[in-house]
Amino acid sequence: MGTATIDLDAELRRLFGFAGFRPGQRNAVEAALAGRDVLAIMPTGSGKSLCFQLPALVGGGATLVVSPLIALMQDQYAALRDRGLDGVEMLASTMTPEQVDAALGRIQAGEASLVYVAPERFASRRFLEALGGAAVSRLVIDEAHCLSEWGHDFRPDYLRLADVRERLGEPPTMALTATATPRVARDIARALRLRDPVTPSTGFDRPNLMFAVRRAAGDGQKGAALLALLRRPDAVPAVVYCGRRAACVSVARELAESGFRAAPYHAGLAGDERTATLQRFLAGELDVVAATTAFGMGIDKPDVRSVVHWTLPSSPEEYYQQAGRAGRDGLPARCTLLYDGKDKGLIVFFINRAKLSAGELTAVHGSLVATADAGGVFRAAERQLPVDDPRAAVAVLERAGALEVFPAQSGFVAGRLKDSRLAGAHLSAALVAVKRVERMRWDRLKAIDGYATTGGCRREALLAYFGERVEPRQPELCCDGHGRRSAVDPDAERQATVQVASTADAVLLAVDETAGRAGRTRIAQILTGSSAAALAAAGHDQLSSYGALRGSSQAGVMKTIDGLIARGVLEQTGGLYPLVRRAAAAPAAVTARDADLRGQVVALGDARDREGVPFLLRVLAAHSSADVRRLAASALGKIADPAAEEGLIAALDDEAPQVRQYAAVSLGRLATEQALPALRSLQSSDVEDYVRSAAGVASGRIRDRS
Ligand SMILES: Nc1ncnc2c1ncn2[C@@H]1O[C@H](COP(=O)(O)OP(=O)(O)OP(=O)(O)O)[C@@H](O)[C@H]1O
Ligand SMILES: [Mg+2]
Ligand SMILES: [Zn+2]
């Protein structure tokens, strides 16, 4: 099919009603029509869909579009249908078997030009047969970063798309993503075996977006800042990214009480409620959606005027993708991050949770072996695997060569094992991969924290991360960071304490990275980004902690180190050149691990994060420090998930009175009736007064509520 015969501008107007192409689009469309592979890395909202929709509609044959989210498929499907375009089909798990059959029939009959499918569809024989009958002229992988474990939305079933492509006779393939790091791009091209792909060049800048950061400590200050932002003229429609589900609900409620038409949106809501919220928002019946990342990829509402982040996202990739929901119509829009240094605690929790030990990897492998047939082919429910993030574990094992993954319906993993025991070489390769992913996560956290705390231009900081430079532009059209944040910052005091907290984090990072082989001075030099030659000689300028505290004085950093030594978190070796390392666990001392853990436990409670419940229960049942157990009991009360009841009742027997006290308080909050007998016996036993009174108050609360 020659492109010369098609007037693309006319087709663009006829089919989509657009006056002209946006940067990169024509290039991608022409390449697709010429039968080339395309790797389109274009920012969120820049118009990637058109790059495959137009060739599909004018190029003849069938284009198969693989897309990871039903909401996203539905959105595009509906938009095309609304424009009166024929030949657009969708296969989704939400459809009835009859609807799926009818769609497959039309595909088989060659009536489809654009077919949207989820990756797990390739596990269906019926579907593969239908495809066998209808030649696929083009394959499209939308949100292609899902096949890179470096991407933030990794999906194991995306890994098998290369095989799918082969089975379809290697049709020209277009992969699209808004995730820009070169590593992700390389992964995509390699995994799909793209041949000399055309890469349309668009800058990564979204010139109509303005960026700002507001420091706000705690929910109170954040709420006030949010209201102020949303009350400005032209601030809505708006999306507020809240991170955790509970925050979505409370933020939406508060906004509604302040007169906004607001609703929460998260994966815990029933599917139809979520769809209804999305529909109302798209139709302009809602001013604000308070959402988790579930409201993300590919959702297209052109006139979002503000995107506010209630908490720090875990990476610049995630931030830019979500902020990019604003201003897709090209008109000015604002992206504001509400920054509280404490929010890093949760991200640290997830980074630590994602770490996999040799024991865990072996256990996951063992569970897969248990479901495997004689040929090593396995299929297991994700929740059967004994780790917090089963998908990540399977991905790591795949990467290490211990298994290959097949497409599977969501909630399941399937594939083929290499051996019935996890070979030593595979295990060590897997551990290396775990370490690499962990380091990448720390680097990303550092980068987004750097964005939030930079004194310079925010756009420049973001784009530099994606490997681009920006042309200077007028401050009022750019960001709040053009040196206009003055020394008389009302939050300066608060900022100072945040700084102290994060200085300690940074010191610990540097100590870990130097593995106990550096002294106080060296650590301070590393953190302040010193250019001393000895640093480079030792490779210390390559560490991710290098320059983490640029701008602080070495003396100040050394003070922090000394403080950590005094608190027993770090220790110094003896000798002429004493080295600094993490303190060995001493029963009386607050160990560094405990310090980390405390932060995580408290943050989980404050975030009312249900996902943290299993972790907190483990801490409550088994941690050696009574104080940490007490914090876990308290956090479980704040989250108030019934799943914690049994563990809290057991904690009424804890050897430490303060743990019993907090367990009682939390059971009161949860109104757990089964706890009444145990609470009653605590009240009448010979225990500390405060335990007895906590038990009494809790019993009263439970009786009131029942
Ligand atoms: N040439 C064009 N002229 C005007 N508007 C356009 C053009 N191309 C796309 N758009 C509009 O831009 C918006 C974003 O398009 P699209 O959903 O394809 O973005 P995307 O790059 O896929 O973003 P995401 O990364 O979020 O998936 C849509 O509202 C679309 O209608
Ligand atoms: Mg898209
Ligand atoms: Zn700027």
Q: What would you call the quaternary organization? A: single chain
**In the CATH scheme, what's the topology name of the largest domain?**
Rossmann fold
CATH structural class of the largest domain: Alpha Beta
Q: What's the overall average pLDDT, rounded?
A: 85
* Major sheet: 6 strands, parallel
The kinds of small molecule bound in this structure are: adenosine-5'-triphosphate, magnesium ion, zinc ion
CATH architecture assignment of the largest domain: 3-Layer(aba) Sandwich
Task: State Rg.
Answer: 27 Å
The count of strands amounts to: 17
Beta-strand content estimate:
5-15%
What is the CATH superfamily label of the largest domain?
Answer: P-loop containing nucleotide triphosphate hydrolases
Low-confidence stretches: 484-501, 585-592
What brief labels describe this structure?
alpha/beta, Rossmann fold, Arc Repressor Mutant, subunit A, 5 domains, six-stranded parallel β-sheet, 28 helices, 17 strands, globular, binds adenosine-5'-triphosphate, binds magnesium ion, binds zinc ion
Tell me what the structure shows.
The chain has 706 residues and is an alpha/beta fold. It folds into 5 domains: 8-192, P-loop containing nucleotide triphosphate hydrolases (Rossmann fold), CATH 3.40.50.300; 209-347 and 454-486, 3-Layer(aba) Sandwich (Rossmann fold); 355-440, Arc Repressor Mutant, subunit A, CATH 1.10.10; 489-583, Winged helix-like DNA-binding domain superfamily/Winged helix DNA-binding domain (Arc Repressor Mutant, subunit A), CATH 1.10.10; 585-706, Alpha Horseshoe (Leucine-rich Repeat Variant). Helices cover 48% and strands 11% of the residues. It contains 28 helices and 17 strands. The strands form 4 sheets. It has a 6-stranded parallel beta sheet with strand order 1-6-5-2-4-3, with helices on both faces. Strands 7-12-11-8-10-9 form a 6-stranded parallel beta sheet, with helices on both faces. The protein has a 3-stranded antiparallel beta sheet with strand order 13-15-14, with helices on one face. The longest helix has 30 residues, at 424-453. It is globular. The N and C termini lie far apart (73 Å). 45% of the residues are buried. Mean pLDDT is 85; it is low at 484-501 and 585-592. The structure holds adenosine-5'-triphosphate, magnesium ion (MG) and zinc ion (ZN). Magnesium ion is lined by residues 48-49, 142, 298. Zinc ion (ZN) binds next to helix 17.
